[in-house]
Every structure is written in structure tokens, then in C-alpha cells.
Amino acid sequence: MTDEYRPISFRWILPVAQLLLCVAMIWPLRHAFIYEIRASVNDYRTHTESTPNQTTYPRDLMSYGTVITVEDIHRINRLVLRVRGPSLLNFPAALVELPYAIATSEKMPWIPRGMSLWSWRAISWPLVGTVLWWLAGRGIEALVAAFRGIVHPALGYVEAAIGLLLTLFGALVFLFPLIYHEARADLDFPWGFASLAGAIWMLLGGAIIAARVMQWRIRRRAAAQTNGGAIPA
Fold first, then answer.
1. What are the 10-residue block averages of pLDDT along the chain, 233 residues in total?
2. Staple 114 to which of 39, 101, 180, 231, CB 3.0 to 4.6 Å?
3. Domain ranges of the chain
4. For the whole model, what pTM was predicted?
């Protein structure tokens, strides 16, 4: 039955789609990112440390003068979203850099010399996030197959644990701007996009968990039929 089933390859569609979306977001700022990458490479070659490029940083509102127009605010919001959008879309990648940040006295993640924090995250987190998007795609494939009574692909306890972690982490990010009202007043951070990304990862993690539970029930029913109708404990 599994041989006849041809699932949609969500495990490949989701990682590729998110990479293309991230490239589209930072493409208008590609020259600034290239500048930072070259500066970082030069710093490591010459063993010096330069100041990170400021062109990709969101500009402070006061730099626009005493009168801030609606166009200025929209321009700031677009710039903030382009710089921080790729990392927010892949925010579970923060779990990878968390151990290093905890181990250091500054409690800061590792950043290459000559690069800004958000520029580095906009480049690195989508790459790290491809693994999580791949796992999420497997979860969706497994969930769709489970509704057909098929266990494919088979999910293990490790994937279920990752799904639970993604669900909790996504729920935290989704609810934070709703509970912490002061966050919504921060124009320097796209909390609306962050909340949306949290909801997406909450659903993706939930899909992995739901698929694992349904696969367990399918196996249990199959074992009961094999044992003559007796459901194993």
C-alpha cells in the first residue's frame, strides 16, 4: 500500500520555498550584505576588527527630523522587515546558537568580525533553518499519509520531541506581543511578522506531534488485528 502512495514532497518544498523567500527579502540590500561579508573576510585575513556596516541597520526615527511622515514610517518598516525577516522566519535556529551564548560571559551569540548581528542572522539562520523546515515537511507528509491509514514516513521519538519544542517555542513567540503590550509600540522590531512566524512554527510543530500520535494509533490497530483483536497494552 505504501508503494502505491505518492506523497507531495513537503520535506523539499518547504526548505526551498523559505530560502527563496529569504533571498527575495534581502535582495534589495544585497550590496550591503556583500560589503559586510567582504569586510568580515578581510578582518580575518588581516587579523583586525572593523566596525560593522550600518547600512542594513534600521534607522532611528529621530534621524528623519522633527516631522516624520507616513512614508518615512513605511520605509522604516520595510527596511526592518527585510533585515530581520529572514531570521524571524527561521527563529527556532536560535536554539543552535543558544549554548554558545550561555557559555560566554557576555551572554551574546557568536558573530563574525565586521558583521552586524541581524545581518549575520539573516544569512545564517535560513541555512540552519532548512533542517527544521525539512523535519516539518516530513511531519506534514506523515500527517497526510496517516489520514489514509499509512505510516510514511515513520517518525521517531526524537522527531516528536523536536515537534514539541517547536510548538512550545512558536507559541511563546506568537503570544509574546499579545501579552506584552509594550512590545507592539516598538517600531524598531516587526512584532507582527514575529507573531505570524510563531504561529507558523506552532502549527508545524503540532503537525509533527499529531502525525506521531496517529502513527502510533495505526500501529496499535495493526498489532491488534494481528493478535486476533486484542489491543496490546
1. 73 96 93 90 80 52 51 72 91 89 86 88 94 97 94 94 96 86 64 90 97 95 77 50
2. 39
3. 10-226
4. 0.82
